[in-house]
Amino acid sequence: xxxxxxxxxxxxxxxxxxxxxxxxxxxxxxxxxxxxxxxxxxxxxxxxxxxxxxxxxxxxxxxxxxxxxxxxxxxxxxxxxxxxxxxxxxxxxxxxxxxxxxxxxxxxxxxxxxxxxxxxxxxxxxxxxxxxxxxxxxxxxxxxxxxxxxxxxxxxxxxxxxxxxxxxxxxxxxxxxxxxxxxxxxxxxxxxxxxxxxxxxxxxxxxxxxxxxxxxxxxxxxxxxxxxxxxxxxxxxxxxxxxxxxxxxxxxxxxxxxxxxxxxxxxxxxxxxxxxxxxxxxxxxxxxxxxxxxxxxxxxxxxxxxxxxxxxxxxxxxxxxxxxxxxxxxxxx
Length: 333
Description:
Number of domains: 1
Helix content: over 70%
Distance between the termini: 25 Å
Number of helices: 16
Structural class: mainly alpha
Largest sheet: none
Radius of gyration: 24 Å
């Protein structure tokens, strides 16, 4: 059953993650890519650690089991740090449209890892159909040139695919381990780890802070990707992961291209192609297929239409012959 909290978490994660691509495109005019990621996680780590320190007790903040440690490593190392670093590096070798498609393989990769690591999460044929429709919809939204998919830089595609795989594997590992830490505490531990990893990769690639151009646009872009996409988005996403599981939580990455496309149109003045509208509808159809498997339609209709149900029951009792009019007690099971 899908409740309002789940819908709200999904919407917030999709909105904030989708805005990341718009802010990142604006911010890359001022920052080297990996250093941009590193500074993003620096700021996010400060905010999140301060929040966790004020919100939770020392006992709630302390990892006490191997599952807690693995959960923190998967959060900071795989889902946040490595996935984002590989995304920004891979984008240097591929267009943003191709990058969006490759990263939208995340919901496809998640069931593969879940089949190996999680006995409780499996995907049905209907679920696979919904995932396939969602992926087709993403491809229509970003609308890449087919020649870019077959004739581009294979290294860039491999790096982007590794980033999507890292995020999917990390999400499944978090569900796999028996962690006692809450998701906000995992994020508070994971963000400094992600920042350290990103700084290491930035230094290894030869980036320098002297290449940064500080301007109001740079501060605005860094502020968005740090606070909204680095704190609020991950709070919503990891809470969703704990509630719904890795497969359903990673469906967020099907909605992200839709949000980023609309954000680019509204903020950056980018044009929305007619084919993108078809893509939006296709993604919606994919979610409708997935949702029909998650929501018990008939019981809900019966609950919403009590008058029809009571009326039909009354009619049935009137029309049905009274063959059991004796005094035998009825069974309560």
